[in-house]
Amino acid sequence: MIVTKAQPDFTGVWEMNFARSILRAPAPKRIVVKIDHHEPRLTQQIQLTNAAGEEQRLTFKYETGAETTNSVGGATAQTHARWEGMELVIESRMKTPGREAHFKDYWSLSDDGRTLTMAHRDDDLRGQISIFEKRSPKDSAAVLI
């Protein structure tokens, strides 16, 4: 009998581990991501806190196997999410004044489900790897997302 692994469920509250991450821009003070994943739909809420303590909140919605539209800083991003094996690939194209940006984010979970890796391998952020650690349900209740 062949047993196949179910695709990962990214649901949870995740906090960036800056020491384990490789960022292509100056790091903010804190990044917390709340993900609600009910295949094929996924909502990602991001709370960024800069060095001065100011917060910025972003929300992205995806649907695997379909194209979605999200807004980023006033620009529109066309996004397509799809599974490649056990990785969720979220590919976005966004036009800004003077250029077109291309992002291709590979999401994967550790075997224990406690570490979320978001890797940019072949896009405008090539080499950026964001490592997030899952917060406990008790700690997650304090997140303001």
Explain what the structure shows.
The chain is an all-beta fold. The chain has a single domain, classed as Lipocalin, CATH 2.40.128. It has one helix and ten strands; from the N terminus they run ββββββββββα. The protein has one helix spanning 137-140; strands at residues 12-16, 30-38, 41-49, 55-63, 67-72, 75-84, 87-96, 99-109, 115-120, 129-134. It has a ten-stranded antiparallel beta sheet, with no helix packed on it. The model has no long low-confidence stretch (mean pLDDT 91).
Tags for this model:
mainly beta, Lipocalin, 3% helix, 145 residues, 10 strands, 1 helix, ten-stranded antiparallel β-sheet
In short:
This protein has 145 residues and is mainly β. It is built from one helix and ten strands.
What's the structural blueprint in terms of helices and strands?
Blueprint: E1 12-16, E2 30-38, E3 41-49, E4 55-63, E5 67-72, E6 75-84, E7 87-96, E8 99-109, E9 115-120, E10 129-134, H1 137-140
Antiparallel strand pairs: 1-2, 1-10, 2-3, 3-4, 5-6, 6-7, 7-8, 8-9, 9-10
Helical content band: under 10%
- Structural class per helix/strand content? mainly beta
N- and C-termini, Cα separation: 43 Å
Could you say how many structural domains there are in total?
1
**Biggest β-sheet description:** 10 strands, antiparallel
CATH C-level name:
Mainly Beta
Radius of gyration over C-alpha positions, nearest whole angstrom: 15 Å
Q: Number of helical segments?
A: 1
Outline: globular
Which topology does CATH recognise?
A: Lipocalin
pLDDT averaged over residues:
91
Q: Could you give the count of β-strands?
A: 10
Q: Strand share of the residues?
A: over 45%
The CATH superfamily is: Calycin beta-barrel core domain
Spatially, the strands of the biggest sheet line up as: 4-3-2-1-10-9-8-7-6-5
CATH architectural label: Beta Barrel
The topology string of helices and strands comes to EEEEEEEEEEH
Unreliable stretches covering 5 or more consecutive residues: none
